Predict the structure.
Amino acid sequence: MPVILGPNRYGKAETRVVRVVRDGGVHHIKDINVSSALSGDMADVHLTGSNEAVLPTDTQKNTAFAFARKHGIGQIEDFALLLARHYVGSQPTIGHARVEIEEYGWRRIPVSGGPSEPRHSFVRDGQEVRTCVVHHDEDGRTTVVSGLKDLVVLNSTGSEFHGYIEDEYTTLKPTTDRILATAVSAQWRHSGESHDFGASYDFGTSYDEVRRCLLEAFAGTHSLSLQQTLYAMGRRVLDTREEVCEIRFAMPNKHHFLVDLAPFGLDNDNEVYYAADRPYGLIEGAVLRDDAPDAAFAWE
Ligand SMILES: O=c1[nH]c(=O)c2[nH]c(=O)[nH]c2[nH]1
């Protein structure tokens, strides 16, 4: 039965590029996900195994990083046009380029009482989920745990990590300036008893204020580890919100690796990062008052 090659394309999907622009002490970030798909004179690649027409997908990934450094990232449409024109314009075998870009929005974390313009701390737009778990039993015991998950935050400086154990498998380089990013999952236990949780108990304000404490402590802590930041966030909540007696965290360390652009003749002074999604460090911990009431079934 005769068989022919149908439509085809190839490329690098989901190159996660983060660019930090430093405007004095004020940082701006662009966080994008670039997918390129190229097509053209690719019959031989499929039929004979000749790769003469192929611009490797690895090169497409590198081009996204190098262009971020060289040209900056403005409007994603402009960046996509730049890449697409580059592929079609530079390679005779490539007749068509499809470049898809998603951009993730970040807002500055407002810090009350701090400098009017927070400079390098961001919260990702519109992701988080508010949660609660309530238990109530026939003996009239009630527990309330409030929480949030997927509150994605990032400090583009003010984070170090060094002084750790180095054994024969350690390759991580110590750093005094890195991006610290995490998706905060936190659950906090209200210390009240059943009769406290009446109509006048303001869970709305409590939630807003705990969230504010978490963001402010994240933004305001010069971090020597995500563990230290976790503790500072928990402590801020317990110092500020008397209705909360315990808070538990799970925080993935969303690694951002500096891209080596030297092979393309470009420097990279903490500007262009590769945002890796896995594997990730997972930092978990609880912070509680030493006289916190018994948790009963709150965490079940
Ligand atoms: O803040 C961090 N804590 C760690 O325990 C750790 N481990 C690691 O490789 N990087 C980091 N970063």
